[in-house]
Amino acid sequence: MDKIAQAVLVVVNGILVKNGKAALSPADLASRNIDGLGFDSMDKLELVMELEDQLDMLFDNAGLLKCRTLQELVQFIGKIK
Amino acid sequence: MSGKSDIPGIQERLQEGYLILDAFLAENGNLPTLELFRQCWKLILRNEELFGGMPAQGRRFNFDLRNIAYIRFSLFFKRLRAEFVPTVKLADKSLDINARLGSVFLTMHSELELAIVKLLQSNLHGVAMISAGQRQPRQIDLFGLSPALGIIKRNNDCLLLAREALAKSNSLLIDVDYTVFDEERQRYEHKIGISAFLFAKKMSRPLYFVMPEINEDGETVCSVELAQTDTSANEIAEQFKLFARSRALTGDELSVGDWFLDTKGKSNAKVARQGP
Fold this sequence. Notes:
heterodimer; A: Non-ribosomal Peptide Synthetase Peptidyl Carrier Protein, Chain A; 4 helices; globular; B: alpha/beta; 2 domains; three-stranded mixed beta sheet; 9 helices; 10 strands; 38% helix; 20% strand; disordered N terminus; disordered C terminus
C-alpha cells in the first residue's frame, strides 16, 4: 500500500472509530463509496484537512468533490502530489 | 405587537393590512421613500389585530412575528417605490466588522438573514451563506445585494465549500439552529447544531454572533458580539445560547445537538431549513 492510500485509510478509520463504527481494511479502499461511510459535513472537512496536514498538500474542492469512492480519492491525491 | 411566529394565516392578515395601508398611502404618497416606509411600519405596529391571536402550538420557530410581516410588507412596498432598500445597521456602531474580512457569523433563523448579508456587504465583505435552498430572487433584489450572494447548499459537502469561501476572503453566515419533531411530546424541539461551532473553531477565523431585530422605525438593527474562541466548541455553543437568551430572541430552551444525526442528513426533513 502506498503512502497516500495508507494516509487515507488511517484518517478515514480515525473518523469511523470516533463515530463508533468499525474500521475499514485495506481491501475496502478499492470498493467503498465515500457517501456510504456516513460522514457528515464536519467529518468530511476533518478528512480533508487531516489528509492535507499529513501529506503536506492543499486540495482544491472542484476535484475533491468529484471523488465518489475512496479509490478515486487516493487517485485524485496521487495525481496532484 | 409582540406575537411569535406561526406562518399560516399571516398572508390573510397582511391582506387586511394592505387595505389600511392603501388608504394611508393615498394620503401620504408624497413623503420621501424612507419616511413613507417608516410611517407605514408604525401604522402596521399600531394595528395589533393584524397579527394577534396566533396559535403557539406546533410552531417550529420562535422568532418575532414582526420579521415575517416586515419582509412581506417590504416586498409590497418595493413595488410602490422601486428605489426602496430596507435600512440595516449595527446596534453597536463602534464595532468594526469591516476590519475582519473572512469572518464567520453565526445566527439563528429569523427570516432576516438577507438583512445580515446586506449589513456585511455594506462593510465591503463578500458573503457566502449556507442555506437549504435558493433564496427568493425578489428578496435578494429587495436588499440590493451586490456582489451576488454565494449560497452554499446544505449537505454533507457544505463545510468544504464554506472553507473555500473563507479562503477567498468571503465572510460566512450560518444559521446554527434547527428543529426536530419529538414524537412522544408531539412538538418541535429547538436545537443548535454543534457542527457550526466545531467548524468555526477549526477555521481559526474571527467568530461573531449576530441577531437582527426590527425597530419601531422599520430598520433592521443587528446585535453583533465577538465570540471567545480559545475554548471548546461546546463552550462556544454555550456562549451563543447566552447571547441569544440575553436578547430574548427565543423563549425556547435551546439544547446543543448534531444536525446530521438528528435528521439523518435530510435537508428537507421536518427540520429547520438550515444548519450544517
